[in-house]
Amino acid sequence: MAKHAFLSASASHRWINCPPSAKLCEGIKDESSHYAQEGTDCHELCAYLVEMALGRDVEDPTENLTYYSGEMQNCAEEYRDYVLEQFERSKKFCSDPMVFIEQRLDFSRWVENGFGTGDCVIIADEVLHIIDYKHGLGVLVESEGNSQMMCYALGALEAFDDLYDISTIEMTIFQQRRENVSTSSIRKDDLLKWAEDVLKPTAALAYEGKGEFKAGDHCQFCKVKATCRKRAETNLELVKYNFEMPATLDDFEIAAILPRIDQLITWGNDIKNYTLTQAQSGTHYDGFKIVEGRSNRKYTDDDAVAEAVTTAGYDPYEKKLLGITAMSSLLGKKQFDEILGGLVYKPPGKPALVPESDKRSAMNTAADDFNDN
Questions:
Q1: Integer Cα distance of 90 and 162 in angstroms
Q2: Cα–Cα separations (whole angstroms), residue 257 to 62, 118, 168
Q3: Looking at the DSSP assignment, which residues form a beta bridge with residue 117?
Q4: What pTM does this model have?
Q5: Which residue, of 29, 55, 143, 318, is most buried by count of CB atoms within 10 Å of its CB?
Q6: Is residue 246 located within the same domain as residue 318?
């Protein structure tokens, strides 16, 4: 009996870090959301714009997109422009590069039934370039060590390595709404070594439901993240932290706790969301009950309200300058840059305490200013 293809490239970050999670999640229905559909819509628009720019005969999907907007159009156009730039760049490596959009990529040599769909694959001598569009705002996605991209690259090598003399793979995450274009590269030999030493044996464990459970940031999109015992044990270790003596924590102890705080908070919120859903379906948790939350008053009919207030002699509307995203949608990117380019700036971001592995440069602190004097 054939096994189901459930080791997807998109979920590889999870099942590579926690192999038995694949079997645990098997059969659990994916939860749909408007965010997922919005991403699907934008991918369809991106593919159409690139194909059209390449002179291919494609049908405009805009009328059938549920969440089409000016912002989505701008994001897709930026993606198209980037892909075309990279395609032109690939011509430096050979005279006949090829570009594939929404290409099925098979990496089943290393992962049983392993396949996925690459948003954009540009193949030329020397360099194979994988470009993946991300529409989400919530999670900043990096290309460095991105297992989804590496699986796609393996699939592209399987299909095209005999046609081109490829030595390097470039991988780009294009996340326009986060102003994130993250590109990294890996030598073909190093990618194939990772596939044999890491991907293949881990996938074999995952298929059998074997290996060790492990909690971490890869839990974020796991279907059993709220009820996973290993994740609970990992987070509860922090709760058991010995705070007895002294009465306050020193800097060393705080530094030991900091890396786990975000995961602890996320886990707690996942538990709360899961139990609320279960309680609404009839599950009773001792000591808890469902109540109606607070809400704000709303108009029953906006047009009727506006008409009534206008009749009474008042102006029911307030004027507000459009934000940068909305203004860019109104004017279009080119006209926006021409008219408002000199009137836009990017202020410093709010200070955030992050691990030293974060790629951003460190800000000056009060201690740094003191040392400089």
A1: 18
A2: 49, 39, 40
A3: 104
A4: 0.75
A5: 143
A6: no
Indicate the pairing of strand 166-175 with strand 126-133: parallel
Domain boundary among 243, 262, 280: 280
Question: What would the two tokens of residue 3 be?
Answer: 């096994």
CA 173, 177, 178, 181 torsion: positive or negative? positive
Instruction: Say which amino acid occupies 98.
Output: M
Please tell me the total count of domains within the chain.
Answer: 3
- Please check the confidence at residue 51 and state whether its pLDDT lies above 90: yes
pLDDT digits (tens, 9 = 90+) for 108-164: 999 998 999 999 999 999 999 999 999 988 888 999 999 999 999 999 999 999 999
Rounded Cα distance between 2 and 323, Å, is 53
Cα(2)–Cα(47) distance, integer angstroms: 33
Put the strands of the sheet holding 98-106 in their side by side order: 98-106, 115-123, 126-133, 166-175, 180-187
As a residue count, the chain comes to 373
State both tokens at 164.
């081109």
Q: Please classify residue 250 by burial: count the beta carbons closer than 10 Å to its beta carbon, then call 0-12 exposed, 13-18 middle and 19+ buried.
A: exposed
In the numeric block, the tokens 């800097």 are attached to 251
User: Could you tell me the two tokens for 144?
Assistant: 């460095």
CA angle 270, 275, 276 (to 5 degrees): 100
Six token digits for residue 21: 């999670």
